[in-house]
């Protein structure tokens, strides 16, 4: 009876292949679930303790030993990367949902910037952990593995690049024959969003600090219009100010080319 059962089971497996091991499949599912739980607990610990929380602190919050975290993530950099991927995944879905509701590319970019600011503002310690914390515990890693920030920003840049490149290459936008914007603008935009966003994040709360929505609008305006549009607002006052030189003042006029 056992022989017939074994032969029947073997006959259902194609030649050259082995039957899948159910125990192995269950173990992989268990590992994946355990990993998700460890990331979730680590995220709560970092949010509470701060971005410099040690592996011992994080493991204690999970009621386990740090050797368990090393087993699942390799080192602290591995944990940072795993948490960063979770944050990016959540942000990406938020960006996709917001972009679908956007009527114009400008509104789409605003939605992306707002999602970035909200993510950083909601969990500033987690944001700092996945983007800034040192990786001294990863002594064996090469430079590419060490730069968790670059890994994080590369994913965000690609999120921005796809829809914005389509806009930059659209016939509705006037562009010169040597326009480099489609290639370089998305990366430059992320650099500005990050620099302005982190400066805003570190600014103490007060009446002069913009809200998330206001800051997202400011950054979007700067990216689309630059600061030249503010010239019409400040230039008239500056021109009528006795202390301010006029546009034709010799103090700021460029000398002619033939002037010694």
Describe this structure in words.
This protein has helices at 2-11, 22-49, 55-61, 66-73, 76-101, 105-122, 124-131, 143-146, 148-168, 181-202, 212-225, 231-239. The protein has 260 residues and is mainly α. The protein has a domain at 76-170 and 186-235: Tetracycline Repressor, domain 2 (Orthogonal Bundle). α5 (76-101) packs antiparallel against α6. The longest helix is centred in the first third of the chain and has 28 residues, at 22-49.
How is the secondary structure organized here?
Elements: H1 2-11, H2 22-49, H3 55-61, H4 66-73, H5 76-101, H6 105-122, H7 124-131, H8 143-146, H9 148-168, H10 181-202, H11 212-225, H12 231-239
Mean pLDDT: 74
Question: Strand percentage, roughly?
Answer: under 5%
Instruction: Return the structural class.
Output: mainly alpha
What overall form do the CA principal axes indicate?
Answer: globular
Between the first and last Cα atoms, what is the distance in angstroms?
108 Å
Query: Would you count the extended β strands for me?
Result: 0
Number of helices: 12
What is Rg?
A: 27 Å
SSE sequence, one letter per element? HHHHHHHHHHHH
Highest-level CATH class of one domain: Mainly Alpha
CATH-assigned fold name of one domain:
Tetracycline Repressor, domain 2
By CATH, the architecture of one domain is named Orthogonal Bundle
